[in-house]
Amino acid sequence: MSGPDSAWQGVWSLDAIVNRRLRRPRAAGVTMVIDTGLGLSSMRDILDLAGQHVDHWKFGFGTTALMPRAALEAKLALLRDWDILSYPGGTLLEAAVVQEHCRVFMTRAAELGFGAAEISEGTIDLPGERRRRMIDCARNSGLQPITEVGRKDPERQPEAEDLAAQVLRDLDWGAAWVIVEGRESGQGVGIYDRAGDIRASFLDEMTRLLGDAAVRVIWEAPLRAQQAYLVCRFGANVSLGNIPPQECLALEALRCGLRFETFAAVAEQSRAAGVWDPSRVENGAPAKATTSER
Questions:
Q1: Given this model, what pLDDT does residue 2 score?
Q2: Model pTM?
Q3: How far apart are CA 101 and CA 121, in angstroms?
Q4: Residue ranges of the chain with per-residue pLDDT less than 50
Q5: CA–CA distance from 220 to each of 4, 125, 166, 186, 242 (Å)?
Q6: What ranges make up the beta strands (E) of 171-272?
Q7: Sign of the dihedral defined by the CA atoms of residues 60, 66, 68, 73, in that order
Q8: Distance between CA atoms of 118 and 67, rounded to whole angstroms?
Q9: How many CB atoms neighbour CB 80 within 10 A?
Q10: C-alpha to C-alpha distance for 166 and 148, rounded to whole angstroms
């Protein structure tokens, strides 16, 4: 964002572009980063550069069970300093559920310093009542419940109406946000075909059924073309997830219309509204040098 500490302040104003974005804390337009094994120093560097643009930080799948506790707690403390919501991946909770340790998992997550829990059925099947109780369990443990809809297996993909119905149920049961499964590959799951392209009619049907609740959805979009499509389709304040940590600043540029995929539309809108005329010389343009000054 442009502001008092912007490197470009005083050269020209980017406010008209950058102010398309809602400011943190925000309930829409969130960016969820997926961390699959970033070291503390690398994480600190990324946050120093782009932390103001990150809302959620998910520790992918079961990675937090495989790192030293001290390292995990140091990372969680850093995220709290940045006021970034943290949660372990849903697969780890699914593993706890299989071992009948859901409540123990929620309690330990809160003790470690996580702010939320991701509740998913990416691999296992759960009765609806069990899913509702898991949402309650997260809340009772002091965690924000964030659910995920969809399956990880490309051969077991729900229809758009089934996904939309589950989103609405989860929100009614108390979920703070609902993530739509896209995996880390962005291929063959959810709103994506096997090549990673968005199934436009599938997406349109989902959003039609969701209505106003669509603002509470986080679309996992690990690939650049997917991010661009969703920003162009829903605007700068669409919520996107599974963003690689090193790409969260690039995503913010995309959202603000400071990359080709979205800047073209911004430039055309400015021209059509009369805000910008390609042939008009700016008021602040330097005067042409006289002969004596050359």
A1: 45
A2: 0.89
A3: 16
A4: 1-3, 287, 289-294
A5: 32, 21, 16, 8, 5
A6: 177-180, 217-220, 239-243
A7: positive
A8: 19
A9: 14
A10: 9
